[in-house]
Amino acid sequence: MNGLFDDLDRLDLDGHVRRWSAREVARAGGEVNQWIAAAGAFTFRLQADPVPLSDERWRAVGAAWAALLAAAERSAGPQGGEWLMRDLWLRAWLLENVGPRPDVPLLDPRTPFDRALDALPMSHPETAELAPRWRELTRPQMLSLRRAKQLLAVMRSVAPHVEDHPRWPEHEAWQRLAGDLP
User: Fold this and answer.
1) 74-83 pLDDT, tens per residue?
2) What's the angle, vertex CA 122, arms to CA 117 and CA 127, rounded to 5?
3) Which of 3, 39, 116, 137 could make an SS bond with 151 (beta carbons 3.0 to 4.6 A apart)?
């Protein structure tokens, strides 16, 4: 798809939805910085003026966002969880500023909550053991603890919308470790 990354800052929200919903996006290539710019422009446009959208439009926005992130990951690789974190933070922001709508996938608070829990890089016991002495650890271990802290922040952000979630006790156990994480 020629011009995929052209004029990203000039597209309105519907322009982003059209661009990232095109079938060719699934096969698109691109450099990491191009995909980061595309994701940033999309989120900027969405956050600049979170106007009330119909459920149908929110579904279209969510599908385009998912297509963009999937294409970025296929083309550039996971980039240390870059696409996951962008997705989780956008969803958390939308929940705070637009509100939850469980029937709209992008606004379903269970999704970022579950994905953050599932993405935790270490087991709870391992994290509990390593967190208090994080300064003594190897760099990869420190980065894993740092990622856990970032994921716990996402969970804290969406927690008010999922207090009846079946994984709530797991969330609470993890949150008790947050203060020890780097």
Assistant:
1) 999 999 999 9
2) 105
3) 116
Task: Report pLDDT for 2.
Answer: 65
Residue 65: closest CA among 17, 29, 113: 17
pTM over 0.90: yes
34-54 mean pLDDT: 91
> Exposed, middle or buried, 134 (CB in 10 Å: 0-12/13-18/19+)?
middle
**CB contact set of 173 (below 8 Å; sequence gap of 6+):** 124
Q: Report whether 23 contacts 8 (CB < 8 A).
A: no
Instruction: Please report the DSSP string for 5-47 in residue order.
Output: TTTGGG--HHHHHHHHHSGGGGG----HHHHHHHHHHHHHHHH
